[in-house]
Amino acid sequence: MGSLHIGVVAALWAGAVEPALAAPASPRPVVEFRWDAPASCPVEAEVVAELERLLGGPLAERKGPRLTAIARVRQEPGGGFDLRLWTVSDEGTLQRSLTHAQCDALARAGALIAAMAIDPSVLERMSEETDAAEVAAEAKTVEDPEPLPEPEPPEPEPELAPPEPVQPEPPRPPLEKKKERRARRRASRCRPELRRPAGRRGAAEAHAGADLAARAARVRGRLRAAATSALR
Q1: Where does the secretion signal sit in this chain (predicted)?
Q2: So what's the architecture of 31-141 in CATH?
Q3: pTM of the model
Q4: Do residues 75 and 84 lie in contact, with contact meaning Cβ atoms separated by under 8 Å?
């Protein structure tokens, strides 16, 4: 009975303990900012850094109502730049437009407009009037906001060219064939008479010996004739 009682209690205790819940996903940031501009303009990281400087801290650490700011810059045919800034909050969507000849000045003004939408007291905390404030003051509210721009798709990564196939080396001739070719080349450089067959070479040598013997006999004959005439 004691063992049965212990088993029942253990089973009830195990059933009462709930499994540990999975850790919740990281919450979505309260403030989000997107920047879309030509390559000649400041990049998004630079504009975010200016926005965080105005707010006094990182966007990821902001508390309060949720707000999304989307800034899009396009270059005009005349050479200037046009900024459209959407701010989306629980109260609705507000769009502002602003143009300027220089994109970097437009970027600083856009960061200031976004910072004021996130925290209206930003302008009051600024120690002095800045060029960005003067440019931002020219922003106009769009009465009928345009649809929010879709995020630009990431550029596809360039495809790598397939490696060229490695050409196999031609087979090397065997060593014996090389030796045979060298022997033939050496033989071709020898004197023609050395390449004659043995029978022909012997006949030629015998004929040459007979010529030499006849020539020697003629020389001896002339010498005898000269000696005989001298004795007379």
Answers
A1: 1-22
A2: 2-Layer Sandwich (3.30)
A3: 0.54
A4: no
